[in-house]
């Protein structure tokens, strides 16, 4: 277990969402926010920021940014729900773009489909104003052992 | 025989446009040029792009953006004329951890340009494309919007 994972675990146990995001420089640069809804489910959100744009005409969020946001959400979701303090390592990430990301807040929710001894499978869904109209869906595999 | 860009003007204009988009400018993407129809982009290691401060490794999301952007440029190297394209899907395999402090390069190629879909593959590496950090495949919709990406944004 690294000092970094120990720090993340402390922040997690204190439910210090801002502290968790601030511990990951790129998540902070994107402007990610993290919270727990009324049902106690983790919700990730990315308020609109000009620096995240990938098409200035539409305008639309950059597809790569949406990918980074979802990948980061999956990692934090996994750390949040795991007992072990080994850092999960991303193996692969697959992302389907369904709608362009408009200049609005982007939301994401994750689901751990399977957590085995060595590998975890996480589904991620992103949407904006209407949960039934996803902007992107993704899945990631993480390696859990070193 | 090395293929040349289908329309050098399209490639030149679109490569400049893609790296100048706000998100790409934020990450500091640089377009280094295109060999045949395979463009190469570069991102310098930067502290604010790190995903794990304990190791200093660049966040996977930066690699995702780099693959997406370089792959999009590779499509424009095959386009006969200007058109708007949009990523349909993307898959990244993280082959090994990136080395902290080192710049990451991405080289992409569009290996099939169909009438409606473009298919691409890309590798990210530090020194040698044969020793990659990540491998990415993507598909792009062609003519994804009637609005040209070249227009100035409305005030």
Describe the protein.
The complex is a heterodimer of chains A (146) and B (155). Chain A is 29% helix and 36% strand. With 146 residues, chain A is of the alpha+beta class. Chain A has one domain (3-143): Hotdog Thioesterase (Thiol Ester Dehydrase, Chain A, Roll), CATH 3.10.129.10. In chain A, the strands form two sheets. A six-stranded antiparallel sheet of chain A has the order 1-2-6-7-8-5. A two-stranded antiparallel sheet of chain A has the order 3-4. The termini of chain A are close together. The model of chain A has no long low-confidence stretch (mean pLDDT 94). Chain B has 155 residues and is of the alpha+beta class. Chain B has a single domain, classed as Thiol Ester Dehydrase, Chain A (Roll). A six-stranded antiparallel sheet of chain B has the order 1-2-6-7-8-5, covered by helices on one side. Chain B has a two-stranded antiparallel sheet with strand order 3-4. In chain B, α1 (8-20) runs antiparallel to α3 (60-76). The longest helix of chain B has 17 residues, at 60-76. At the A-B interface, α1, α3, β3, α4 and β5 of A face α2, β3, α3 and β5 of B.
For the structure shown, list the relevant keywords:
heterodimer; A: 146 residues; alpha+beta; Thiol Ester Dehydrase, Chain A; two-stranded antiparallel sheet; 4 helices; 36% strand; globular; B: 155 residues; 6-stranded antiparallel beta sheet; two-stranded antiparallel ribbon; 23% helix; 35% strand
Task: Write a short abstract of this structure.
The complex is a heterodimer of chains A (146) and B (155). Chain A is of the alpha+beta class and 146 residues long. Chain A has helices spanning 3-13, 17-22, 25-30, 63-81, and strands spanning 33-36, 42-46, 53-55, 60-61, 89-97, 106-115, 119-127, 134-143.
The topology string of helices and strands of chain B comes to: HHEEEEHEEEE
> What's the CATH topology name of chain A?
Thiol Ester Dehydrase, Chain A
CATH class annotation of chain B: Alpha Beta
Order of helices and strands of chain A: HHHEEEEHEEEE
Q: Helix tally of chain B? A: 3
- CATH homologous superfamily label of chain B: Hotdog Thioesterase
């Amino acid at each position: 277990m690294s000092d970094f994972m120990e720090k993340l675990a402390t922040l997690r146990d204190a439910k210090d969402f801002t502290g968790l995001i601030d511990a990951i420089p790129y998540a902070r640069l994107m402007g990610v926010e993290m919270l727990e809804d009324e049902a106690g489910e983790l919700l990730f959100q990315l308020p609109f920021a000009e620096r995240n744009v990938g098409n200035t005409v539409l305008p639309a969020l950059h597809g790569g940014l949406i990918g980074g946001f979802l990948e980061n959400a999956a990692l934090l979701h996994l750390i949040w729900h795991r007992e072990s303090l080994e850092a999960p390592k991303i193996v692969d990430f697959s992302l389907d773009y369904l709608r362009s990301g408009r200049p609005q807040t982007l939301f994401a929710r994750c689901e751990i489909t399977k957590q085995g001894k060595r590998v975890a499978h996480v589904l991620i869904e992103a949407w904006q104003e209407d949960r039934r109209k996803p902007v992107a869906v993704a899945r990631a595999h993480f390696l859990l052992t070193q | 025989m090395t293929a040349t860009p289908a329309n050098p003007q399209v490639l030149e204009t679109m490569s400049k446009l893609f790296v100048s988009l706000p998100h790409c400018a934020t990450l500091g993407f640089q377009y280094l040029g295109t060999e045949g129809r395979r463009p190469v982009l570069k991102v310098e290691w930067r502290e604010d792009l790190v995903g794990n401060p304990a190791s200093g490794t660049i966040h996977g999301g930066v690699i995702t953006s780099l693959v997406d952007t370089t792959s999009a440029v590779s499509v424009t190297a095959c386009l006969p004329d200007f058109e708007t394209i949009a990523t349909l899907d993307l898959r990244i395999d993280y082959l090994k951890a990136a080395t902290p402090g080192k710049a990451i390069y991405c080289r992409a190629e569009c290996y099939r340009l169909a009438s409606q879909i473009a298919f691409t593959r890309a590798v990210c590496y530090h020194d040698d494309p044969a020793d990659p950090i990540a491998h990415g495949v993507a598909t792009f919709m062609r003519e994804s919007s009637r609005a040209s990406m070249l227009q100035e944004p409305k005030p």
